[in-house]
Amino acid sequence: MKRRDFLKGAAVLADTAAFGRLHGGGTQMTPAPCPVTLLSVPDYGRDVEKEIAAVMSADGLALKGKKVLLKPNFVETHPERPINTNPAVIAHVAHACLRLGAAQVIVGEASGHRRDPWFSVLNPGLRAILDRRVKCLDLNHGDAAIVPNRGRLTRLPAFYLARPVAEADVVISLPKMKTHHGMGITLCLKNLFGTLPGIYYGWPKNLLHWNGVKESILDLARTVRVHYNIVDGVVGMEGDGPIMGKAKPVGVLVLSPFSLAADATASRIMGFDPRKVLYLVQAGQFLPGLRPEDVALRGENPRRFATQFECLDDFKAMRGGPFF
Amino acid sequence: MGTGKGMRYNKRPTMSPNELAPFVKRLTSLMLPGGGVPYYPGGGPSAEPSLLGLLALSACGAPAGSAKPLLSWVAELQNTDGSLAIQPGHRGQGIWLTAPAAVVFHKYGLVEARDRALGFVTSLKSETVPNDPNVGQDNTIVGWPWVRGTFGWVEPTAWSVIALNVCGLGGHLRALEGRRFLLDRQIPSGGWNYGNPGLNDRELLPFWDTTGLTLVALGGLPDVGRVRPSVDLLEKNQGKIGSLCGLAWAALGLEAHGKNSPEVERRLTAAMAEQPDDGLNTAHFAAGLIALSGRKVFTS
Description:
A: 324 residues, Rossmann fold, 10-stranded mixed sheet, B: Glycosyltransferase, 12 helices
């Protein structure tokens, strides 16, 4: 699909802006299919700000005058491994939000392994490519709002949610498309661990591990309101992810107002059946988008990106497909 | 600038009081009128930057009066069990801050508060789990956790060992086991990260800040050969460390092992001078000030 055609298609999709309202921002079950858009991004050098803005607008994401928080995934850095959400993707999304009239755009992350924010959102390389109006916040070190745990699959009665996340009008999750040595895959839902400050949870966030990673993911999925999701699958990570794997070029961004729909679609692109990923299956009991029929795919043909991520032996049973 | 009790000049060149003054002034300007120092300008007060700020003021020989309000604010954060809170509104969180608090109370002569903090530190134990052949470490060694009821990790264990060292309890059984924990978590080719040296027979990456901090904790170790790879790692990579946090703790870690780090110090000075308020982590700034002061704050 040519860029012009894509934008044209996105304009038509604007008529479907009711999706977001119908689905209540991804927090309620609905019989309507969840829109998921696949955007071709062969490499990080391509400027896709306009395309991202068009898709978000088409999906009914109203940002005018809003305080928007972008939540990328920064775990730790390695000179060769694509562990983190690429700065170019963060910048394109941030600038797309400004384009759509956001009053304030914040890039915030509570990195799971590294305390030093220089290796996360305060890295000069990221800040250098961001518009000056975009603010970067280290969520590990700062105040938190106590919010009741709405899932209660863990023993935790409440979460200490980074205050900028709690106070944002709109939260956009920007995970990396990766395998995960504990959960199989890590995408939008798992990315919410990074909304919890390390000064309350430690590095890594071991309290969540002791309460069950799966249960913590599900509790956070019920507790933290996310309004939009964009998975960085331009170059993902396969094998022994989320930090020890190797690069897997896929060339796609997966965009959706619905976390589970984005995760399920990204999972299928990675060659894993989301109905075999336990935490996704359980999330499907309270979030829409697990089954293929729950998803309305837009944009590029998914067959263009469908692949098979290498994984640890423990997760080979999750494989499936072809899905598209 | 005089030498206070328990502190002495290091052999390496240090900044003069006049050179330190602008940094001290900047640190004091970040103190909030109601007490405490925020992690970032514009934020609310928090324990860690306040504690490191107090240590920095002490290291720079700042007048006692300038530290008094901050010290009072920190002392108010101490819970009845001796532990420290992250901030007044979150009393039950932040037990990992108790060890650095003990160091501060010791340096400022708050003996009763120090002893209660030490009592808490020595009683706090990390959980252990059975050893896993895929993880290259001994999971049965007891260290210190970030959060009560969880596993032990490098940074809270390093701070606890430092606190015990500073307060004259370096021979305590918990200090001995803490050192064993830290040595076990050392990455074979050098350095430490959050607390896993390797996975599936592959080494994980070291972090500059945790490496420096842990070298501080293991300063004066009789068998210096055990940490030689980590000292060498920092020494060889002085030019690659880019962050204020990494530079500060690298300088302190090398200093703890008698190493000059001119490249790190030069770059640390520049980083502290050039860092605008936007993105300035005051805890890291204070650690940098401690490093540039040249005083050994983390020894008894």
